[in-house]
Amino acid sequence: MKTLAQKQSAAKLLTEEFWSTNEILNQPVKIEHSVNIIDKNGNYKILVNAPGFKKADFKVRVENGILNIQAYTSDKKEEIKKNYVRKEFLTSSLARSFRLPEGIDVSNIKAHYRNGRLYIKMGKANTVKQMNKKVKVQ
User: Fold this and answer.
1) Which of 19, 43, 75, 96 is buried most, with the most CB atoms less than 10 Å from its CB?
2) DSSP assignments along 47-98, one per residue
């Protein structure tokens, strides 16, 4: 039979130590979104591994010869139930930038998001023209 002190110790373990925050375990997970760049048939194709986003989460633009890719998402779906001990939400962001080589047709950059991947296609141009552009993700 357990003594009162043993029962109190077990209760303390369950309520304080078990649910306590541990600095190592509570660090946010940093996801490095891998990128593949392919040079094929007069085009550059960029594939960004970015699961968990929607196409509306992305901002793709070219400014001063730099391709900027950004995305942010936050799961704000809240399920109200009694007896939660801990409740955590998902947030994720992505930010990558690439200096474009000379000869990119900035006016004709296309992007689409499908099955957790962002695809960006850039054609090579015969003439170099510096311009800024927002790219709509399809």
Assistant:
1) 96
2) EEE-TT--GGGEEEEEETTEEEEEEEEE-------TT-S-----EEEEEEEE
Residue-wise pLDDT for 57-106, tens only, equals 999 999 998 999 999 988 766 666 677 666 667 778 899 999 998 888 88
Cβ-based neighbours of 92, under 8 Å, separated by 6 or more: 31, 52, 53, 71, 72, 73, 74
Residues 6+ apart with CB under 8 A from 52: 73, 90, 92, 116
What distance lies between CA 58 and its chain's CA centroid?
Answer: 9
Query: N- to C-terminal Cα distance for the chain?
Result: 67
Cα 132 from Cα 60, distance rounded (Å): 11
